[in-house]
Amino acid sequence: MPNRELLTASNARGLIERAIRSLSASGETALYDGLYVVLKEFERERRVSTEVRRQALVLLSDGLDNRSRLAFDDVLDYARRVAVNIYVIALRGALAQVPRNEQDAAVLRADYALNTVTRESGGRLFFPKMARDLAGIYTAIAQELFSQYELGYMPVRSVSDGGFRRVAVRVRPETNALARTRSGYYAPSRATPGM
């Protein structure tokens, strides 16, 4: 049996840092496919776990996708269904590995996709200007997750048609609170008799 190094929190962090620093950007990116796979894992974890937990995903990306087999709309639809808050740290300018024109159609599509997935999932979008901004962004996300409350409600009319229901939450201005919510939910669908 090969000699395996036991991982502790301190040496695991070092290994992770070295692995990240050794990466280089090249080739094509299947961002939507990757996001879909991660969301599937969140859904699987939710099904097998007996704990009730809020789930959040932090995505560090320039948002460009040039390889996915899945369309963005399909991934967005799935993100709405699995109820995972998606936080995106969007790399631009010198932080992005691929230089590009900010008016490029691919960049505009990427910005639309990143903004939409965060808004629809109840997450948040960040645009760091420098690498040193990343630590503060990760801290802000952690503090936000720590200080959030999750609310639920039961609709007055129960319709089991599988359709998407928009939800709007407002807070009183004097509370200085911020409501960040998913855009809605899918109603359960009733199986057709005889199917």
Shape: globular
Given this structure, which CATH class of the domain at 17-152 is correct? Alpha Beta
Mean pLDDT value: 84
The helicity comes to 25-40%
> What's the CATH H-level homologous superfamily of the domain at 17-152?
von Willebrand factor, type A domain
Question: What's the SSE blueprint?
Answer:
Blueprint (H helix, E strand, L loop, with lengths): L8 H13 L9 H18 L7 E6 L10 H11 L2 E6 L14 H17 L3 E2 L6 H15 L16 E3 L17 E3 L9
Parallel strand pairs: 1-2, 2-3
Antiparallel strand pairs: 4-5
Protein described:
The chain has 195 residues and is an alpha/beta fold. It has a domain at 17-152: Rossmann fold. Helices cover 38% and strands 10% of the residues. The chain has five helices and five strands; from the N terminus they run ααβαβαβαββ. The chain has helices at 9-21, 31-48, 72-82, 105-121, 133-147, and strands spanning 56-61, 85-90, 125-126, 164-166, 184-186. The chain has a three-stranded parallel sheet with strand order 1-2-3. A two-stranded antiparallel ribbon has the order 4-5. Strand 2, helix 4 (105-121) and strand 3 form a beta-alpha-beta unit. Helix 2 runs parallel beside helix 3 and helix 3 (72-82) packs parallel to helix 4. The protein is globular.
